[in-house]
Amino acid sequence: MTSEALARALNTNPVVVRRLMGGLRKHGYVHSEKGYGGGWTLSCQLDRVTLRDIYEALDAPRLFAIGNRSEKTECLVEEAVNDAMSGVLADVTAQLLARFGQITLAALHADFHQRLAARHAPAMLCK
Amino acid sequence: MTSEALARALNTNPVVVRRLMGGLRKHGYVHSEKGYGGGWTLSCQLDRVTLRDIYEALDAPRLFAIGNRSEKTECLVEEAVNDAMSGVLADVTAQLLARFGQITLAALHADFHQRLAARHAPAMLCK
DNA sequence: CACTCTAGCAACACATGAAGTTACATGAGA
DNA sequence: TCTCATGTAACTTCATGTGTTGCTAGAGTG
């Protein structure tokens, strides 16, 4: 599949797609080929890759909208609050990643197909 | 204490302080008085207010930097991923708030005083 | 060999939201 | 009535993520 086609499907831009896919390629989840007939191909088993793997392949972007605005401070109040918060945030981050680590792409794939079937046979829901 | 003085201590602007303190006032944690001799006064017991209370008084701003970019979508893949993620995010949010709910301002206050003592008697640490 | 199609990449432009700023109104004491 | 303070709206600035353009390089076609 070309970046162009993916971008259309995702309502975004081919360059954005390449940026994201670049991370996935570095980790061997996808493969890309240049030139005529080129594009992206899957190169991993869906049941061996998790949301956590994807997150980390994407360079582990910031998870939280809150947190210390500076690591070092002269202010003892700020220090006390930072310590209290960063302990919680670290624990919660670990939990979140652990949960993401249990969600495989295969599971999402299966979920998608279930939704697809449901959409094509909506009458079943009305019984 | 005036917004002006607080702003200096926090390296910010009096108006920003008023915006934040406004939330705390609405919940009765602080009291403000206008005019000469006015400013902010504490009006709660520090051991009865938690970080979670503060967070909610500040109108519960976004916690996560990740998440659904749109609630409704036509895309079944997006739907599947959103469902998987929002389940995790909801659980993790609950955990985070629970933890914040256990951190009282009194505890932070005590922690601060401990740091203050340590700073004034640093020789103790070298024994 | 020229042409087209594709990814790779850097640099720039735009959008969004948080934080900071200005200006003015209101209320309280001197 | 003057000064000092909060209350608030409107505007500006800044940071970050997203989108866009322009160019390079590689790969197949005719």
Helix content of chain A: 40-55%
* Average pLDDT figure of chain A: 93
* Most strands sheet of chain A: 2 strands, antiparallel
Work out the largest interface and the residue count of each chain: A-B, 31 and 31 residues
Q: How many DSSP H or I helices of chain A?
A: 5
Strand content of chain A: 5-15%
Write up this protein.
2 copies of one chain form a homodimer. In chain A, 54% of the residues lie in helices and 6% in strands. Chain A has helices at 3-9, 14-26, 51-57, 76-100, 105-120, and strands spanning 30-33, 39-42. In chain A, strands 1-2 form a two-stranded antiparallel ribbon. In chain A, strand 1 (30-33) and strand 2 (39-42) form a beta hairpin. In chain A, helix 1 (3-9) packs across helix 2. In chain A, 13% of the residues are buried. The mean pLDDT of chain A is 93. The first copy, chain A, binds a DNA duplex (30 and 30 nucleotides) through residues 2-4, 12-16, 18-19, 21-22, 32-40, 61-62.
